Amino acid sequence: MLRAIYPGSFDPVTYGHRDIIERSSKIVDELIVGVLCNKAKMPLFSVEERVKMLNEVTKDLKNIRIVPFDGLLVEFAAKMEADLIIRGLRAITDFEYELQMSQTNHKLEPNVETMFLTTSIEYSYLSSTTVKEIAAFGGDLTQFVPEAVAVELRKKMSTKGECNK
């Protein structure tokens, strides 16, 4: 059985993330979407909120599990008994960073491989940061995130106040 991890912050999950999740789920027997709790970052959504949104937007995919984690990705992979890490690439600038992380992960755990999927062209410009900025200024989110995520973003922005503070 081939089990893979697609890790990320998913703050919030976008159509680009959903695209990689859906395509990955067709390649592997089980896909674990690892929701990173990174104490060095200040996410807009809590880990629990991100897990809830991911569960909602992937409910139609049967071989997906959403699991929060912190610490080293290769340690999480070992805990989940996964042999593959999947990473999405939007542009060449992503590749430089992801290659370095892949090589580091392989050095730490030689039995875990990394596979890169290029983002579908219609999402190649899309990032969670861009989505949050659009939401902060009350822009239309429908072409960037699923409706359930747009609802949560609008709620969050209404409680954050001016300019996301």
TrEMBL record:
One GO cellular component, as annotated: cytoplasm
Keyword Nucleotidyltransferase: yes
Residues where ATP binds: 9-10, 17, 88-90, 98, 123-129
Pathway(s) this gene product operates in, as recorded in its UniProt entry: Cofactor biosynthesis; coenzyme A biosynthesis; CoA from (R)-pantothenate: step 4/5
EC number of the protein: 2.7.7.3
InterPro entries on file: Cyt_trans-like, PPAT, Rossmann-like_a/b/a_fold
Catalytic reactions on record: (R)-4'-phosphopantetheine + ATP + H(+) = 3'-dephospho-CoA + diphosphate
Nucleotide-binding listed as a keyword: yes
Compartment list: Cytoplasm
Record-level GO BP terms: coenzyme A biosynthetic process
Cytidyltransferase-like domain ranges (all copies): 5-133
Uppermost EC category: transferase
GO molecular function, one term: pantetheine-phosphate adenylyltransferase activity
NCBIfam families in UniProt: coaD_prev_kdtB (TIGR01510), cyt_tran_rel (TIGR00125)
Function: Reversibly transfers an adenylyl group from ATP to 4'-phosphopantetheine, yielding dephospho-CoA (dPCoA) and pyrophosphate.
Annotated family: Belongs to the bacterial CoaD family.
Designated name of the protein: Phosphopantetheine adenylyltransferase
Lineage of origin: Bacteria, Bacillati, Bacillota, Clostridia, Lachnospirales
Gene symbol of the encoding locus: coaD
